[in-house]
Every structure is written in C-alpha cells, then in structure tokens.
Amino acid sequence: MESRIMVFDHPLIQHKISLLRMKETTSKDFRHLVKEVGLLMGYEVTRSLPLKDVEIETPICPATVKMLKGEDIAIIPILRAGLGFVDGMLDLYPNAKVGHVGMYRDPDTHEAIEYYCKLPEDIDKRRIVVVDPMLATGGSAISAIDLIKSKGGKDICCMFLIAAPEGIKALSEAHPDVDIFIAAEDECLNENAYIVPGLGDAGDRLFGTK
Ligand code: PRP
Ligand code: URA
C-alpha cells in the first residue's frame, strides 16, 4: 500500500497560500487565511464520504435524494498550529468531534516530543482528519499518527498547507495507509529544518508569539 498524495492547486488556495507566505501578513490576517484555506481543503478532503438515499418531499413531488450516511468524523489538530484549521473544519462538519495531540519540535534535534493527547472515545469508529499547517521533517505528523493508531484510530488522512519533499517521503513511508492532502510542495528544508521558502514558524505567526 502507498499513501496517496494530493496537491490542491486550485487558484483560490494558491492565492491565499501566497498571502500566508508574505512576512508582512499580520497574525489576524494569517488566522483568517488559514481558516479559509482549511475550509476550501476540508471540502475536498471529504469528497469520498459515503452517501445514502433518503425519501423526501419537495414542494413539487416526492423524491429520492442523497444525504450523508452520518459517518462520524474526528478532526485532530496537532498543537499548536493545527488549531488554526479547527474552526473552518467545524463550519463544514458541525457534528465532528475534535481530538488534540500536542507535539513540539526539539529546537536542537528537531525531533517531535509529545506533550498532550486527548482523543474522542470512539476514535476507532471515526474517519480521522489530522490537521497541521506544516509538514517539514515529518517527525510531528508521524508521531501524532503513531499515537492515534495506538489509541485505536484506523481510518486516517492528514492535511497540511505546505510540505517539504523530505516530510512527504518520511510520512508516506512510515504510514503508507494514510492519505496526504497538501496545498503546496516546497523546495527543501534549511539547516534549522524550516521549510524553504515556506512561511516561517506557523505557530508563532498564528498566535503572534514572536
Ligand atoms: C510545527 C508545525 C508542525 C511541525 C512540523 O510545530 O506546526 O507540527 O512544526 O515540523 P516537523 O514535520 O519537522 O515535525 P512546532 O513544533 O513549531 O510547534 P507549535 O505548533 O507549537 O509552534
Ligand atoms: N514548523 C514550522 O512552523 N515551519 C516550518 O517551516 C517547519 C516546521
């Protein structure tokens, strides 16, 4: 099995990603843009949700129409920066449950260190969308998905704004059953394991901490 890698190159998404990259974009605008791109991507990510036939009456006649099977979704942001996607995703799926996985990168080794995990109890039955703006070395996403699988999660995909080739390779090798949705694949990582050209530190830009 191999991960499917899907790059959403819709012009609206590309335009908003370019605004996110600009260093003068304020935290307020950054948050708004992440939410908007999350909405646009979330719409595509759930394209394969199953539908069922439902009998209804329109003002004109009875009709058989399609509605969502009621399949349950869990949105799992990787803290902190993944939180930027949650509001947009909840606008699309108000009944989704939200789990949280806290990961930070050690500044020297760049290894992901877990500091928090709280998932919906029925995680094993849900379609799981892991969200984080950045896939750099892949360490945070790989560890987060290891953790989610260890708690019973099975049906998992993940969504990032910007990914480095190194992260895509590492994640798809570690979790070949997990589909990867991205808005842009960038050139490489720099010596500090930041994505080039990237957008900088997503958490700091989202929350204004630097
Ligand atoms: C960022 C980002 C990812 C991670 C990606 O989080 O949001 O979680 O780095 O890097 P990786 O692919 O090399 O693991 P960070 O560790 O900066 O934490 P923060 O969201 O709290 O700022
Ligand atoms: N984390 C970020 O926030 N940005 C990067 O470029 C790499 C990791």
Q: How would you describe the overall organization of this protein?
A:
The protein is of the alpha/beta class. The chain has one domain: 3-Layer(aba) Sandwich (Rossmann fold). Helix content is 31%, strand content 31%. It is built from six helices and 13 strands. Strands 1, 4, 5, 6, 7, 8, 9, 10 and 11 form a nine-stranded mixed β-sheet that branches. It has a two-stranded antiparallel ribbon with strand order 2-3. Strands 12-13 form a two-stranded antiparallel sheet. Strand 10, helix 5 and strand 11 form a beta-alpha-beta unit. Helix 1 runs antiparallel to helix 2. The termini are far apart. 36% of the residues are buried. The mean pLDDT is 95. 1-O-pyrophosphono-5-O-phosphono-alpha-D-ribofuranose binds next to strand 4, strand 6, strand 9, helix 4 and helix 6.
